[in-house]
Amino acid sequence: MASTGVARTGNNLQQRNFIPEVWSMRMQAKFYASTVVPAITNTDWEGEIKESGSVVHIRIRPTVPVDDYIVNQDISYSDLEDEKLTLNIDKAKMFAFKCDDVDKAQMDIKVMEEATTDANFQMKIAIDNDVLANIHASATTDTGTLQWTKVNVLELIVDIATNLDELNVPKEGRWGVMAPWQFGLVSKSDLKDASLAGDSKSVLRSKNDYVGTIAGFMFYESNILAGASVATSAVPTHSLFGTKHAVAFASQLKKVERIRQLQNTFGAAIRGLNVYGYQVVKADALVDAPAFK
Question: 210 and 217 in contact (C-beta within 8 Å)?
Answer without folding.
Answer: no
